Structure formats: structure tokens, C-alpha cells
Amino acid sequence: MEIAVVRDLLDKQLIDRDGEALGRADGVVMAYSADAPPRIMYFELGAQTLARRLPRPFQGVLAWLGHRLSPRGSSPYRLEVSRIIQLGRTIKIDIDGTRSAARETERWVRDHIIGRIPGS
Amino acid sequence: MKKLLEITLGIVTSIGGFLEVGSLATSAQAGAAFGYQLIWAIVLGTICLIFLVEMSGRLAAVSKQPLAGAMRDRFGYPFFLIPLVAMSLLGVLVLASELGGLSLALQLVTGASFPWWAPLGAFAAWLLLWKGTFSIIEKGASLFGLITLVFVVAAFRLHPDWTRAAAGALPSMPRHEPMRYWFIAVSIMGASIAPYLLYFYSAGAVEDKWNETDVPVNRITATFGMSFGGALSVAVLVVAALVLVPRGIRIERFDQIALILTPIMGRSGFFLFAAALGIACFGAMLEIALSVAYLVSQGFGWKWTEDARPRDVARFSLVYTATLIGGAIIVIVGVDPLAITLMSMALTSALLPIAIVPFLILMNDPHFVGQHRNGWISNTVVCAIVGLAFVLAVVSIPLELMGS
Amino acid sequence: MLTRWRVSCAALILSLVACGGKSVAEQIAEHDRVRVSWEQTTRFVGAEWAGLAIPDAYAARTLQRASEELRSDSEALTKEKLPSGDLARLHAALSIVRARADSLAQAVRARDRDAVIRMVKDSPRANADSLLRQAALR
User: CB distance B249–C44 less than 8 Å?
Assistant: First the structure.
């Protein structure tokens, strides 16, 4: 089966074992060395990855925002491609989303903002 | 039998949600200033909307993805940032105008010129989004929204010359004040072809788990629902024309619009107008806030659903909260509500290509919609009308700004 | 090549500005329209209020609003370059209409229905038939 990286992997919605949203594949990372053929290794998620995809002049603002707002700081989150269970309209990853670092920002917003408002 | 019920419900839902401050204000202005002459703008806008709403339902049913998500999928990031930023900012602006309309309605009913109606209205909308489910919001807004049918009743009671009104459905050149004419035409089209409706509709279709069998039903509900909705705008225009033209009154400020039902229905007319305005604006606020939240959340792949507790969809909830706050700030600052309304409608027309061109490309991509691709009619009609709206907007907005 | 492009841009902008500017006759007509519109609005509000169709608060506020709009139209008038004859006529007409709006507002606040009915009757009435025909509604 043929998979086109940009059409079928990049920017696709990633979901966890239970079908809940994990995020989107903001980047795709390949490993490339002299003695092995290039292989797709990871999905990359996060504001830093998104910032790098912008034209140079705009990179600064988004990178700064991501650094400020993300609890992880500067490092983007990586998901091994080997964990893919299903490829289709969405990409299912063999991971428990409730504890995954991919949802760290979501949990942070929940604990520090939304959770503090009554009735949530 | 069940299908028939489904269709009826779908049509009723669409009617109730159609009229909001933009279509009300622009239709009333058009009627007072140009009689039946601008009915064609409502007709064109409604036709375009029918095609677009049908398309957004079809996309959701076949690809199982809502519009915003499908756009990121197909065009990737960073292109997606363009519609994301444009439509989000526009959404906040339009929400501000709806909030302005709601504040006016509360002012009309209570008589109190209360500067805090705006934050109160925004808070009420927020509370409903916080606590409510998609189904309750959709059905509630639509059912209560049926009060806007009062304009249809009023229009018939005025015994308009229907042949002359029908003549207005054909485009014609203005006999006076050409700049104003085209600016109002552009605003009418921007009020009808509201992109936020598309994000809302397709997200709803995904929440309701539509599939390919829903495509034919969707076609019927979109056509009839939006047509009835367009008829509501025409009714407002007719009423404004027959009440205000013989009195030589043009609409310069929102307060004047409240008078259009009183000659026909007396004191009840006044309060019915306020109720219709308030309910229509409130419903629109809910839809717009959700639309922006859908756009952002789906675009970035976050969890999004109105049916979960806010803590389970934290970032989604944060976005609609921020949108409501943004709209409230604009109104509190004191910008004239009629001015925001007209400008945001005209701006919508100018920015339509940003939202619609990617959408059209999606609807012709077999990877997303399989064999349910757009026919040449859908493509041609949407392109033509959106193109017209865009050209008119680009020409008339600067002229209007310079003229006033 | 670049110069030709610059010249065309300048010509386009100038023509837009020229079209955007209104002729003297148009400016006068616009002022007349705005004044008549608010004059008739105050008449309408007065009539409906006397007929108990609209609440006191709304009537009073709309009449006040009319007065404010007429005043800002007067101010705008002083900034425009119009022939002095027309300027005088417009100013005079605006003052009359504004005074009427203020008196109506006062009467509404005092709940003096008879005064309002009298003022409405005395104010000029729009020619409904002619307006309807002009707008091709009849």
C-alpha cells in the first residue's frame, strides 16, 4: 500500500487507542544515515514545529507564543510512527491519551483555567 | 415517515436560525432606502447559501470530517492559518454586532438604557454553552427563533404589490445614491453568506454522526430551510419599505428599526420586534462562538464537542469563552452597533473568497467526498455569486468609508 | 515601465477619490434627506406614543437621539463648503426640526398626550403617495 507523506501523514488528525483526539501531525521526522535507507521515525506535535513551517519573518512570534504557553517549554512532542494502529481519515496511535504528553497543554488549560471556573 | 419528520425538523431548524441582526438591519435599511429594488441581493445571497450549506453537510456526511478539519487536512498548515485567522477575527466582529442587537432588544423591552446589557448578554450565552449540549442549543435556538415569522405575518398584512416585489428580485441599477445602494447590496450578501454557518453546520453534522444516506435528506433540508430563511429577510425588507418609505424615514440608527411593526400590530408589535431581535441575536451569538471554537479546535486537532463537560474539552471551551469576551469588549467600548453590523457584513463579503475557495476545492476532491463531488452547477453558481460579492465589496467599501 | 505603472496607480486612486467625493447638489440633497428622515421619525414616534403603541422610555430616548443626530448634522454642515444661500436654508431648517424634536421629547417626559397630538398634527407630513410611487412600491 502506498502512502504519500504529505497527503496521508502530515497535518492529519491523530487519535489515541480510545478514539479521542491527540492532536495533529504538525511535523514528520525522518532518520537518515549513511549506512541505512531513510525511514520515517516520528510524528512531531507542538507550536515549535508549527513555527518552523512558517516563512522566516513570522517564525519569531509563533515560536515565542509556543514557548510561553506550552508547559513543555521548547521541545516538541514526538510520537513513534511504529505505534500506528490504523491509517485512514484519521491516524490511530497505540497510546493511552489520558496520560500522554501530547495532551499536556490540554490538561494544563483544564487544571489552571477551565477547571477553576465553577460548573466545569 | 421518520424521514419526513427528520426533514421537517431540519427545515424548521434552519428557518429559526436564519434571521439575525445582520440580515435584519441590512434588509430593513434596504427597504427604507430603496423599496423593493434590492430584493435581488437577498435572493442571490440565499441561493449561494443554499449551495454552500448543502455542500458543508455533504462534506461532513461523506468524509466524516467537519469543514475546518478537512481544510487543514487538504491544504496543510501554514495555508490554513489564513482562513483560520481571518474567519476567527471576523467571527468576533460579527458576534459583537449580534451582542449589540441583543443589548438593544433588552433596552427596548425594559426601557432601561443599561450599559451592562452587553456583558450580561455575553455571560448568558456563555452559561448556555458551558452547561448545554449541542442538541439543546440547536433545537432551542431554532424553536424560539420561529418568533421571527412575525415579519412574514406583518408583510402579508400590509398587502404589498407582489408583482412589484417580484420585479425587485431581478438585479437593477440604482435610481439614486449609487454608492449607498451597492454598499447595502454587499452588506446584504455578506449577511446571507455567513461562513460561520458553514463551520457550525458541518460540525453539527459530524456530531450527529451523519453518513452517506443522509445526503439526499440534507439536500432537501438545506434548500427549503435556507429558502424560508431568505423569505424572512425579504419579509423584513417589504415591511420596512411599506412602513418607512411613505413616511419618508430612512434608517440611520438602530432605534428606528424598532418602529416597523407598530403600525400593523400596535404595542404588541413593538414588543414582538424586541423579542424577535433579542432571540435571533442570542441564537446567532451561540452559533458564532461555537463556530470559532470549532474552527480553531479542529484546525489544531484538539478535542472538540459541545456535548462534553467543559473540563473534558478544555481548549475548545477556552476558545468560545475568549470569543464571547472579545465580542463583549467591542460592544462595551461603545462602537455604534449599526456601524459594526454593516461593516462586519461588508467585510464578510470581502473575505468570502478566503473561506469559500478552499471549500470548493475540497468539494471537488474525490479523496474527501468520493463520488459525491460537486456538479458543474454548484461550482459555477457559488463561484459567480462569491466573485460578485467580492468585487462589489472591494469597490464599495472604500467608497463608503470615504463618503461618510 | 515602472513609471507607467505608478502613473496608472495614481490615476486609479485619483479617480476613486473623485468618484468618492460628492457634488454640491448631492451633498445638499443628502443633508435634506437626513433632516427629513429624522423629522418624520420624530413625527412617527410622537404619533405612535400618543396611540399608546410604544413605551415612554423608548419614545423619549428616540426623540433625544433625533435631536442629537440633527445637531451633529448641523455641525457637519459648518465644515462643508456649500453656497451660503443653501447653507443658511439648511441651518434654519435643521434648527426648526431640532426644536420640534426637543419639545416633543419634553411633552413625552411630562406624559402630556394632548400636547404631543397637537405637535404631531402641526408638523409637516410626508407625501406618502408620491414617495410610494417614486420608490415603485405602488
Answer: yes
